[in-house]
Amino acid sequence: MTESTNGRPNPGPERHRGAVTLRRDSIPPSTADQKLLDSHNRGEWKTKDAWRALRILSEFVEGFDTLADLPPAVSVFGSARSGPDSYECELAERLGAALAEAGYAVITGGGPGVMEAANRGATEAGGMSVGLGIELPFEQGLNDWVDVGIDFRYFFVRKTMFVKYAQAFVVLPGGFGTLDELFEAITLVQTKKVTRFPVILMGAEYWGGLVDWLKRRMLDEGKISAMDLDLIQITDDVDEAVRIIVDADAALHDTNGTR
After folding, report:
1. Could you give the residue ranges of the DSSP H alpha helices within 145-237?
2. Would the pTM of this model clear 0.85, i.e. be above it?
3. DSSP annotation of 43
């Protein structure tokens, strides 16, 4: 174990597994998701998967119990790799503040980059800032602007929480994880697995090529319909994004007769 300059032990790398914190040599070489989904370890399927099912259930219970009293919320996605001075982080911080001022909690993956910026904007504006972390080989940890944080072992449990407690998704520039959340949300709305809610892309220049491809290939070749493209809205205007969410929320309540 190495020591820092003040004589205290250097904690080194750190990984969170639910309520458990692992450091240094205690960090295993794989994650809980990898062990669950690894088809090479067939011998464990009968001996360990049943117990994993209980752990998965406990994560659902923990998430539902913790988030049940949230006010209306919006899930915000974007890259953990974006620098604090980047355009998307500046946009995310303003968005987080505007959502908080409109009465919405802000839910992110709890990491750095765009997620941290959105959490910061919400917290500084006096709103509720939520971070849903995940166990990764390259541990990030929850950022300091999260008011309510949960660390999950399993991606699919975490992804359920993003959808269940959100009145809308706002997606800023990001990588594979961001695309995963974007297309899962669109698929759930398209297939009517969830009540329709806004899916908003912010960063029009960044998303422009993807949207053009959706139109030129998927739409033109009949893989999707024109109505499917209507599930996505694009704006770089924070006020417009919030207005889309507020209007959709009001329309849903009117339809259900609750207002």
Report:
1. 155-164, 176-190, 204-213, 226-229
2. no
3. G
